[in-house]
Amino acid sequence: MKPIQVGLLGIGTVGTGAYNVLKRNQEEIKRRAGRGIEITMVADLDTARAKSLVGPDTQVVSDARAIIANPEIDIVIELIGGYGIAKQLVMEAIEAGKHVVTANKALLAVHGTEIFAAAHRRGVMVAFEAAVAGGIPIIKALREGLTANSIEWIAGIINGTTNFILSEMRDKGLDFDVALKDAQRLGYAEADPTFDIEGVDAAHKATIMSAIAFGIPVQFDKAYVEGITKLGAQDIKYAEQLGYRIKLLGITKRTPKGVELRVHPALVPAKRLIANVEGAMNAVMVQGDAVGTTLYYGKGAGSEPTASAVIADLVDITRLHTADAANRVPHLAFQPDQMSDAVVLPMSEVVTSYYLRLRVADQAGVLAKVTGQLAAAGISIDAMLQREAGEGEKQTDLIILTHSVREGTMNEVIAQMQGLPTVLAPITRIRKEELA
Description:
The protein is α/β, with parallel strands linked by helices. It is 37% helix and 25% strand.
């Protein structure tokens, strides 16, 4: 049988990995897919560099539309990234009747509803395993492996850069700025790390997982996004003393009122497996009603780990290439006419528990006033830690862990406590997730 012919848009880090892994493991991949898979065309603006990376049988062009226009190309891999030209090329490939494989989480999180609708209309597949958590097959697990379950919640460390920074802060007692510089020096963080450290990258991925888990449209604009830039080394130290570690989590949860979709730093009990995921590694916990808790762990980025996911998508499409479109796995796990209209809750309606750090005057009555305000709002205290003031010091840190409360209520109480004359600095608030 004639091999499936693939066109690759962009041969950067992941594109090079996909080309090399496909070539290296071609016989094994062919045995699994039922026919050969060959990248026969590559589009890249730097054609000289691209030609140096591929064999003589692979055509290199500077114009991506030459690949889309080629009737011999069955599948287009989009590895350009971003929302702009990448979206145009993906939509043009779909309209041309090509299947699409993409690692572009930003594109799918923002424009996925439009892209999937176009693909459904044309009867082609858009596969995106590589868009979330690199080499970890979390999309396939959610769409297929856990399809018997009603998914209750997902919580994931889905950005390696921030996890590396937090690991360095904990292990070495570094402040955020120092740990970030180390991450940049070692190649874990970009020169402009904004998307990573501000939580945007993780929110793109959480948005996609939420849509698949709950059968809702992708709605990145409704996600709550908070990064790690305001975390202090002292908070990581205090959390450790209380039996917790701080991780940047992407969380989505089904509740009676709607769906939670949020990214923020969170205290996680140190005894949880996910709390012990260190360095640039990724991990995703999924809670299903039938299976209970499952954990998926591995490399969330890198040339060949991400290429592994890209090629898995190529194999899936090759197997289903001739299948009736109605019998394929739906893009977002649920049939397009069975999508839910469940609302994504505003952050003020989310219920969780909290870590509070207050810099307070070291004098009698301070603790009573703070705890009195919490009690008046119906917020109960889970644990408390007060640093003993050193000789000559007139202020100290007061650490409070609360039980679950609505975020809007907590915001009101924090504002009240901030108004106390004995609270001497902005209150630090970090959410706490037991992940039980």
